[in-house]
Amino acid sequence: MTKYLWLSHSSGGNLPPSLGVAGALRSRGHEVVFATKPDTIARIEGEGFRAIGFNNAYTQVDKYPDIGPITRIACSLTSPDVADEIKEVVAAEQPDAIMVDAMFPAALDVAPSFGVPTTVFCHTFLWRQMDAWQGIMSKLADLRKAAGFAPLPDMQSLWKAQTRMIVTSVAALDDTPLPGWDHVTHVGPVLDNETPAQPIDLPWAADDATPLVLVSYTTTEFQDPTKVQTALDGLADLNAHVVVTTSKAIDPADLTIPSNAHVVQYADHNAILAHADLCVTHGGHGTMMRALKHGVPMVVIPGFPHDQAPNAVLVEELGAGLALPGDAGAAALQQAADQILNDQSFKKRAQELAGNVQPLDGTSNAAHALDQAVSESEHVA
User: Fold this and answer.
1) Which of 340, 285, 293 is closest to 316 using CA atoms?
2) What is the pLDDT of residues 237-264, one digit of tens each?
3) How confident is the model over 146-194, as pLDDT tens digits?
4) What is the pLDDT of residue 222?
5) According to DSSP H, which parts of the chain are helical?
6) CATH architecture for residues 212-357
7) Count of CB atoms situated within 10 Å of the CB of 144
8) Interatomic CA distance for residues 125 and 292, integer angstroms
């Protein structure tokens, strides 16, 4: 048995695939422990994993510039107090291997010092989004500097310092690899559901030929009720059945729901997409990959995370959907949705692209790569 410690950022997009890979490791007889900010401990424990909350995640937040929600995020990802607590956790847990989320500079900086294999996980595209990655990592570095702390190594140095880098995306859809990154492996998307995302009964007959639309935005606390309501308003007059998932961030009772829509907090998106004709999404990598796996075209209205706008552009470039601005209104959404539903070229292209996603088992591939890294380190020792 190998003991893995996952130093997790625990955001909306990276936690589900992290839990999926952890589940595969557990099925192989290994132990996986998460260490993360306290906000998402319940989600991790809900999947049956032990989770350690960083007591120091926000102890130095007052030193950081107050620029909204990213202030607390930056503190939890870059502060010296968090780095010191990581050292304490590793000393207490004595893991055989460590995984670190790509957007966790404080953890990436100290991880190689522990003398065990370390793997940095990227849960979106790597090569085609290097500029976007550099932008968000530079933002975090600037906020740490403004807080008065010594700078950390640059992004590429932090990533290259790890034993391996695993990208849970599709190599065929990523850009050309850069030289000098031989430790990078694309394993395919990890699309396992968290426990709350169970199949649901829809209020329409199974043989109803009316087009089906799934609306899926972020699962984090940053979910914007206005954006969800705009989606409902924009699709209200469409000849379609609309399913909207809100997560716990929004109570469906707080929304005005048109007669053609069904709103729940959680649902198995894979089961819905298997019969869907359109997906309206924020451009999160997981939802985008799920839609492509099922050959479903998309309207992408990106949020603020750094990969969503580039993902929106990619969907449109691939011919698998349309990209709208992040502040797109109901009329723009209605027009885009109507265009896709009445132009079969979008669905045809999405179905063609499904061939790049369907054969890949990112969950098993990632678990195998981690076990291989441990085995190789034991052989060297």
Assistant:
1) 340
2) 999 999 999 988 788 999 999 999 999 9
3) 999 999 999 999 999 999 999 999 999 999 999 999 999 999 999 998 8
4) 57
5) 15-27, 41-46, 69-78, 80-93, 105-110, 130-146, 155-160, 225-235, 269-273, 285-293, 308-318, 330-341, 344-357, 362-380
6) 3-Layer(aba) Sandwich (3.40)
7) 24
8) 14
Identify whether the C-beta of residue 301 lies closer than 8 Å to the C-beta of residue 280: yes
Burial of residue 226, with CB atoms counted within 10 A of its CB: 0-12 exposed, 13-18 middle, 19 or more buried:
exposed
Name the residue type at position 67.
I
| Structural contact between residues 44 and 7, judged by C-beta atoms closer than 8 angstroms | no
Q: What pLDDT band is residue 195 in, cutting at 50, 70 and 90?
A: confident
**What average pLDDT does this structure show over 89-116?**
98
Type of residue found at 210? T
Tokens representing residue 328 in the block: 């797109």
Burial class (CB in 10 A: 0-12, 13-18, 19+), 362: buried
The candidate with the shortest Cα–Cα distance to 35, out of 21, 55, 65, is 55
* Token reading at 242: 């609309």
Give me the chain's average pLDDT, please: 94
In whole angstroms, give the CA distance from residue 225 to residue 217.
10
Identical fold for domains 3-189+360-380 and 212-357, yes or no, is: yes
Token pair in block for residue 359: 């054969």
What are phi and psi for residue 357, nearest 5 degrees?
Answer: -105, -45
Q: What tens digit of pLDDT does each residue of 217-229 get? A: 866 555 677 889 9
Query: How far is the CA of 153 from the CAs of 105, 138, 159, in angstroms?
Result: 8, 11, 10
* Residue 290: per-residue pLDDT: 96
As a CATH number, domain 3-189+360-380 is: 3.40.50.2000
Token pair of 128, please? 């085609």
Q: What are the structural domain ranges in the chain?
A: 3-189+360-380, 212-357
pTM: 0.94
